[in-house]
Amino acid sequence: MPRTARITYPLGFYHLFNSGLNKELIFRDENDYEQIMKTFSELTRCDDWIIYAYCFMSNHYHILVEEKQVPIAKLIGRLFTSYSQFYNRKHQRVGPLFQDRFKSKIIQKDAYFLEVSRYIHCNPVKAGLTKTPEEYPYSSMGEYLGIRLPRIIKREKVVRLIENTAQDMKQYIQFVHA
Question: What distance in Å separates the CA atoms of residue 91 and residue 149, rounded to the nearest whole number?
């Protein structure tokens, strides 16, 4: 039976996520994380997508993205095909790395957008990896706060979506920490 078609629309916002096959690790060490960050950064230099939040965990990932002209399936395909090949070569394994094709949820309301971004940023805290979201090195929260150099996030786009002032960004940070 064929898979159902993924519903997308240009300029749509999506929460994308997936986990490792059998919930196995997809990132084993810092080098694995750096590889995905490097590839992700290269893919987001063009204006085909705008990434608003991301978090790469040891056995799954979350990405909050706005689709432009190029479908999100192309972004994920390019990102994780390249990464899967790297991972399989490095760890001397064969076969699929991910559980299935990625999942996506359409985000249609501003309030849901904020909830999803908070959920993504708080993932490492809920997993007990850090005390605060900004401490986790493989998520966008550090880029939001200027703790880490922007690699993937275009901060001016995030600020514009959240609102236009530094005060609004502070309120967003408080919202995430709440």
Answer: 29
